[in-house]
Design brief:
Layout: E1 3-7, E2 10-13, E3 18-25, H1 28-31, E4 34-39, E5 45-51, E6 57-59, E7 67-72, E8 77-82, E9 91-97, E10 108-113
């Protein structure tokens, strides 16, 4: 059964940090590149970080140097360490494969106050 459960969001002041976790079930998430996406109110759902099975990473320009994606393949878990958060990082964050499959978890809300 395919399942994605994101957690770790919250309210933080600008300059603060959060660590998001994504627990995935289903072999599709174990063998494919994984990504974190975010969607701000009224905006599109865009990728911010991608990690391959071999550990190669890629980041959106807006988060480079501040966010770090990692994964624990045996645990089928993906993480996003977010440092030096900015108000414009406020969004609901989701994980999925890259490119995404047509299934999404509930996401986790990140709110950064100025």
């Amino acid at each position: 059964q395919v399942q994605l459960v994101e957690s770790g969001g919250g309210l933080v002041q600008a300059g603060g940090s959060l660590r998001l976790s994504c627990a995935a079930s289903g072999s599709i998430f174990r063998i494919n590149p994984m990504a974190w996406y975010r969607q701000a109110p009224g905006g599109q759902r865009d990728p911010v970080a991608v990690i391959t099975g071999g550990g190669r990473t890629n980041y959106a320009d807006s988060v480079k140097g501040r966010f770090t994606i990692s994964r624990d393949i045996p645990k089928n878990t993906v993480y996003l360490q977010m440092n030096n958060l900015k108000p414009e990082d406020t969004a609901v964050y989701y994980c999925n494969t890259s490119p995404p499959v047509n299934y999404w978890g509930q996401g986790t809300q990140v709110t950064v106050s100025s």
